[in-house]
Amino acid sequence: MKKRMILMLAAVALVFGALYGFQLFKASMIKQALASLRDPPQTVATTVAGLTPWQSTVKAVGSVRAEAGADLALESSGTVAKINFKSGDEVREGQALLQLRDEQEVANLAALKATADVSAIILNRDQEQLKIHAVSQATIDSDTANLKKALAQVAEQQAVVDKKTLKAPFSGRLGIRSVDLGQYVSAGTAVVTLQSLNPIFIDFYLPQQALAEVKTGQTVKATVDTYPGQAFEGTVTAISPKVDVTSRNVQLRAEFRNDDHRLTPGMFATVEVAVGTPDAFVTVPQTAVTANPYGDIVFVVEKKEGSATGLAARQVFVKTGATRGDQIAVLSGIKEGDQIVAAGQMKLHNGSQVSVNNTVLPANDPAPSIVDR
Predict the structure, then answer these.
(1) % helix / strand / coil in the chain, to the nearest 5?
(2) Do residues 239 and 250 lie in contact, with contact meaning Cβ atoms separated by under 8 Å?
(3) On the chain, which terminus has fewer CB atoms closer than 10 Å, C or N?
(4) pLDDT score, position 201
């Protein structure tokens, strides 16, 4: 009986020992498995932080307007007799564009010229008579006054005749004609628009804080969505002497060469004005900076002994500055030449093992265009 009890206890001890050993073995294997899965190398794209020239700029929106532009109209009423232009024509200053019927006005002008000629003849004859005292000085004075009156009437009627002709007040390009041959038009009716397109202006507004850094003659760049990826270079020609009391903005005007007439009045434009003195900053792609409640973060790739790839990511808090295109200026936290994670940092933590694959890199252009995208 006693022997059986001993054998039973030994069997139970053996079973519990086996179970305990199995649990230890299982825990060891789980620990090893977790250790191998805890920090596998993460594939990231990297770039080198570079020191690049940096010119601070101020952006504003503006409107394109012509150096000279007008909706042409006649000063008198009448029926259209001649149209000497086509819509979209380039015209010269003084060129006759449209003629109203003016037969009656021209006839009246001829009659007044005849009267003036008679007055001149009478004056000349009486002056000869005065030499032999055949007429008085009062007659000469009356003849002179009559001639001046006749000439004034001729000039007045000539102005009436001239108002029947529409002439280009300056050189430029015509718009769409809005009247037709034979149509009766009232005085003041717009016939066609005329715009002088070279040079051309862009008017825009800047906050009053920028006044200290903007002056006439300064270079500006403008872009319009009509020509994506292309910038037009101009010069600041005027700064308003008055700041708007409502917005605290000041109006500026920039002049642009427009030989090919691609900029047209009424266009919406984005204007970029360089302010301050050029500087140099450490720059990285904007994708390399991760926002964090405690500050902006950048991951720096460094060599690490014992790592499967020999590389590890170190988390660094940085202070960022202005942005320019795809780039952002880093004021502190990293230095020139640091290898920075530009893509894939969302799966990293401080000390993560990394492997680098730069087959596809994020954009890092200081002046990107829509075409490039």
Answers:
(1) 30, 40, 35
(2) yes
(3) N
(4) 92
Q: Is-cis flag, bond preceding 199, omega within 30? A: yes
Single-letter residue type at 264: T
Classify strands 96-100 and 57-73 as parallel, antiparallel or unpaired. Answer: unpaired
Rounded Cα distance, 144 and 138, in Å: 10
The two tokens of residue 86 are 């086509």
Helices 103-131 and 137-162 pack at an angle, to 10 degrees, of: 160
- What is the end-to-end Cα distance of the chain in Å, rounded? 91
Q: What's the mean pLDDT in 186-193? A: 86
pLDDT of residue 370: 46
Q: Which of these, 203, 215, 205, lies nearest to 247 by C-alpha position?
A: 205
Centre a 10 Å sphere on the Cβ of residue 323 and count the other Cβ atoms it contains: 13
Q: Which strand (E) or helix (H) includes residue 332?
A: strand 327-332
CA-based angle 101:107:112, to the nearest 5? 135
Q: pTM score, two decimals?
A: 0.59
Both tokens of 176, joined, read 């769409």
Judge residue 16's burial from the number of C-beta atoms within 10 Å of its C-beta, 0-12 exposed, 13-18 middle, 19 or more buried: exposed
Q: How many Cβ atoms sit within 10 Å of the Cβ of residue 10?
A: 10
Q: Coil, strand or helix: which one is 39? A: coil
Residues linked to residue 219 through DSSP beta bridges, in sequence order: 235
